[in-house]
Specification:
With 236 residues, this protein is an alpha/beta fold. The chain contains 9 helices and 10 strands. 39% of the residues are buried.
């Protein structure tokens, strides 16, 4: 897998992720002081032209630096559940998110507001790709995630372990005055379709972000950011 862009590569280095090789543009300006860190860790740095970096990254938007890294490995679901239950934390369940940019943005919010991790279904959902890593600006290296074969079974296991499932869905209770129960499983649905019917049946409750503008809904990544912020305020 490749990670490109100044911030994503810097975060991968700082997180101690297994980097195999880094390509940098011959005129690369190291404002983030990435290169000294790479040398300290003994990671090979290759100076190359723009054409080579574009070839490796698969895009021209590499900002002059591309890292070849080992794949981001998902965690066992049971590990995320145990961590969330033991700390009274918040585990994020994503029901069929399809846009990699949305998933990347959600990783950023999960990191910013201290979510215990993210659960992603294997089918009908985007997984962690190069685009997701880029969109997350490196947050995927800090937020543990799990990919599950059965989303429905994962929800049930979380509840059986002592967690509460609260969904972000229209027609729910006002999120502004809602008192979240912990350990919390916050469930967000796909772009356009929301939470699936089978998932809704397993929820303990639903909450809605009340809108005052002219559009009737937020992008899913924005909605998750708002919810995680409010959850983090109650958790502390």
């Amino acid at each position: 897998m490749v990670v490109y862009g100044v911030n994503p590569v810097a975060e991968a280095v700082r997180a101690g992720y297994p980097i195999l090789k880094v390509y940098v543009d011959e005129r690369f300006r190291d404002r983030e002081k990435i290169l000294p860190l790479l040398r300290k860790r003994g990671i090979k740095v290759v100076r190359a032209g723009k054409r080579k970096l574009t070839e490796v990254a698969g895009t021209e938007k590499h900002q002059g630096i591309v890292a070849v890294v080992s794949p981001v490995e998902p965690k066992p679901f049971e590990e995320l559940v145990e961590s969330t239950i033991s700390t009274g934390g918040c585990l994020l369940f994503l029901d069929r998110i399809e846009d990699p940019h949305n998933l990347g943005a959600i990783f950023r919010s999960a990191d910013a507001f201290g979510a215990s991790g993210i659960v992603i279904p294997r089918d009908r959902s985007v997984t962690v790709t190069d685009t997701v890593v880029k969109a997350s600006t490196g947050a995927v290296f800090y937020v543990p995630f799990s990919i599950v074969n059965s989303f429905s079974n994962a929800l049930r296991q979380f509840k059986e372990a002592g967690g509460w499932l609260i969904g972000l869905e229209s027609g729910g209770k006002s999120i502004g005055s809602y008192s979240f129960p912990f350990p919390l499983g916050l469930v967000a649905g796909s772009e356009g379709r929301g939470i699936s019917r089978s998932t809704l049946k397993q929820l303990d409750d639903t909450v809605t972000i009340e809108m005052k503008g002219h559009v009737n809904s937020l992008n899913v990544s924005n909605a998750v950011a708002v919810a995680l912020y409010l959850v983090s305020r109650q958790k502390t």
